[in-house]
Amino acid sequence: MTRPDDALPRRLERRELVRQARAQGLPDLLAERVADVVDGSHLSDERRAEVFREMVSHFEDGLAAGRSPEDLRQSFGDGRHAATLIRAAKRVVTPESMGGSGGGDGVLRMTLRDVRYAARRLLARPAFTAIAVISLAIGIGANAAIFTLVNEVILRRPPLERPEELVDIYGSNPDAAFNPLAYPEYQDLARMTELFSGVAATRMGYAVRSEGDRTERLAVQLVSGNYFQVLGLRPARGRLIEPNDGDAAGRSPVAVLSDRYWRRAYGGDPSVVGRSIRLSGGEYTIIGVTRPDFQSGFPSIGIEIFVPVTMVAQLMASTENTLESRGDHSTFVRARLASGVTLPQVRASLEAFSTRLHEQRVTGWEGVMSFSVLPTRDVILFPPIDRLLRPVAVVMMGVVGMVLLIACANLAGFLLARAVDRRKEVAIRLAIGASRQRLVFQLLIETLLLAMMGGVAGLVLGRAILKSVLAADLPIPLPLGIDLSLDVRVLAFLLAVSLLAGIAFGLMPALQATGLDLASVIREEGTGGGRSKGRLRRALVIGQVAVSVVLLMAAGLFVRSVRAVRNVDPGFGRAPGALLWLSPPSSQSPAEQNRRMDLLATRLAAIPGVQHVGRTNSMHLNLLGNSSTAINVDGVAPPPGEVTHAIDRAAIDSGFIAAMGMQLTSGRNFTAADADTSRRVAIVNEAFVRKFWPGLDAVGRRFRGRDGLETEVVGVVNTARIRTLAEDPRPAVYLPLRENSEVWMIIRGNADADADVTRALGVLRDVNPDAMVIEARTMARHIGIMSLPLALGANALSVFAVVALLMASIGLYGTVSYSVAQRSREVGIRLSLGATAGGVVRLLTWDGVRLVIVGAACGVALGVLFGRMIEGLLYDTNALDPIALASVPLVLIVVAGIAAYLPARRAGRIDPVVAIKAE
Questions:
Q1: Which one has a higher pLDDT value, 521 or 790?
Q2: pLDDT (mean) for 293-301
Q3: DSSP secondary structure, 226-283, as one string
C-alpha cells in the first residue's frame, strides 16, 4: 500500500482526506472516521499527517487481525470526540511546553501553568481527589504526630548558653549506673572550682497553691541560687532566681513562673511580677517569668513554678532536713566546665574524689560508689529513661513510616488506574508533539499537588491526634509540657515527607502513563492498559499486605506483653482500693501532722463498706521512686566491693498489711508501742528471709543498720513487687511509721473504688483542708501505671495496624474492581461459553486472595525480624509467638478475601451479550 504524504495541508477538504484514506486500503466507513478526526483537530500540517498515519496504521492492524470494519469503528468511538480531545491537548501543549524553555521566566510560567492545569483537573474529579488526600493525610498525619513528639522530647534542646561546656553528674553503684546525688554531694562538687566554673542543683517537687477557697496542685522545680546563671538562661519578664535568693531557708522566699503557667493562670498579665502567691501555706513573691522556649530542666515535663531549693522543707512539709542528708538521693547536678578543662580530666578527678569518700567511709559511700559524668547534650531526660526513649522513638517512626508506605501505595494504585483512563488523552498529546519528559513533569505536578494537600491535611490530623492524647487522663505522675507549636524542623520534615511521597509514588505511574503511542492505546483499549501496569498494581497490593502483617504482628506482641504484665501477681492483690498521697502543710508541727493523719485514718475507716485503712511513706510500684536502706547481717557477707547490703525500705502503720491485701506469714504485726523510737523492730518479707536466713525462722533474729545499731525482726510478710511488676523478688524491710510528713493512705473496701476516692477526698477536706493531695487514684490505676508504656505502645500499634489493614483492603478492593471492569469482555465470553457465575466469582476472588497469600508470607518473615528488633521493649513475650504467627495472616486473609469477593461478586451478574458488545 502507498503511504500518505509527510504533510497534509490544512486546505485539504474532508472528501480529499476520505480519498487518501481509501487509497491506503481502508473501507469507506473507516476512511470517513479518519477524516472526521483529522479534519476536526485543526493541527499543523505535520501533526495532521502524524495523526493520519497513526489511525490508518491502527485500522490496518485491526483488519489484518480479522476484525470487521464495523467492530473497529465502534471500538474507536466518536471521531468528533477524538478531534475535541486533540484540540484540548493542543491548547495545553504550546511550543514552550513541547521543549522550548524560553529561559528562566519561561520555565516559571510553564510550571505555573502546569500547576493551574493540575489544580483544574483535581477539582474536576472531587471523588478521586478526596480519596487520595484522605489516604495521604492518614499516613502523613501519623508521621506528623510521632515526629512532633520526637522533636519535642529528643531533638529540640533548651536554649542553654554554650551547651558544649555543660555536663551532668550522677552517682553510680553496681545496681544502677546513674542515680541523682545527695545535696551534700552537690555541695562537695560546687567547691571544685578548679574543675567547674559553676555547679547547679535541682530537684522535682509539688506545691499547693491556695487562693481563697480554690486550691490547685503545681509541679515545682526547686533550683540552686545559681541554676539559671550556670545554664545561661535569661528571663522573659522580671528576673530569675539568683544566689542571694537561696542563701537560707525562710529568707525572702521568691518564685519564678513558667511561661506556660503564667499564660494559663494569669492570662499573660505583664504586671504579675511583684505579686504574692501562696504555696503550701507560705507566701512567695513572684520575681519573674521564664522564656517560652524553656519549659524546665527536664524536657517535656510541664514545670509550673521555680523556687529556691533551700525552700524544700517548707514547700514539701518535711520534718527531715533533706539538704543535710547524704541518704536522700534526689538532687540532679549540672555543671559548667572551667576554661581549659576537658571531660576526661573531670572524670579522672571525680574518680579520685570518690575513692577518698570511700576510704573515709562517708555515709552512702561505704561500698562501691563512683561518679558518672555525661555531656549535657547527650542527656535527654534521665539516662535510664533515655535508654528506652531512643529505641522507642526509632520503632514508632518505623511504624508510622510503614503506615505512610501503605498510604502511598494506595495513591500509586489510584494513579495507575487513572492513568489507564487517560491513555487516549496522553497518546494524542504525544502524537501532536508533547515530549514524554514534559508529560511526566505535568503528571508529577498533579501528584505533588495531591501530596501537598495530603501534607496539610496530615498536619491538621496529626495535631488533632496529639491534642486528644495529651488531653486524655493518662495515669502519669508528672504533668506533660509538650509544645505543639510548629517549628522549622517539623515543617521541614512534613515538606520533605510530602515531596518524597509525591515523587516516589507518582513517578512510576507517570512513566507508565506516558510510555505509549496513539496506536497502542487504541489497540489495548479495554484490556486494562497492558501487562506492566497490572504487574505494578499487584506488586503494590502485595507490599501493602506485607506491611500490614508486620504492623499487626507487632501490635499482637505488644498486646500479649500487656496481658502478661497485667497477669503478674503484685503480691498485694488486685481487689478494689483507693489511694491518697498526701503532704500536710509545713505550718503544722510534727505532732499536729500525726494527730490529723490518725484522725483521717479513723474517719476513712468509718466510711460504709471500707474494710481496712493503712499508711506508708513509700508506696509499692511508685513510679517516682522508692526508699532503701543499708544493713548488715552476721554471717552473710555483702556483695563484692560493698560493705553493706542495700535493701528496699518502707515505713508502715499497723493497718498497712491488711489494707494492701498482703499476708503476715509468721510473727506479729506492728503495734502502737512500736512507734517508740527507743524500740527498734522490723517486719521483713520472705525474700529477705531466703537471702539472709534460708530455712530458718526469722522472728526474733536481728540485723544492724548503717549506724551499727541492731533491729529485731518481729514478723514476716509475703513478698510483694516493690519497684516494677517485672522485677525478681526483692528483699524488703518494713519499719514502724513514726511521722506523717508525706504519707500514702490505702483504703480497701468497696467495689466502686472511684467513689471511695471521692469520699476520701471529702473526708480529707474536713479533717485537714490545707493538706496537699499529690495523687488521688484507685489501686487499679496505680498498678496500671506500671504497664502504661506497653499499653500506650499496644494501643498506638493496634490503631496503626487497623488503619493499615483497612487501607490495604481498600487497595485490594480497588485492584480487583478495576480487574473486573477491564476483564468484562473475558467474563462475558466465559459466561456465554457455559461458565457459572459462581465459578467466575471464585476465579476473580482467587486472583485477589493469592496476592494476599504472597504478601502475608512476606509479611510474616519481615514481622519476625521486626519482632526481634522490639523484643527488648516487651515483657515475657517471644517474637516467635505462635499465636501471632498463625492468627495475623489468617485474619488478614479473611478480611482481604471479603475485600476481593465484593467486587468479584458483581462480575457474576454481568450480561454476556452486553459485555461482549460493549467491548
A1: 790
A2: 81
A3: THHHHHT--EEEE----GGGGSSTTSS-EEEE-HHHHHHHHTT-GGGTT-EEEETTEE
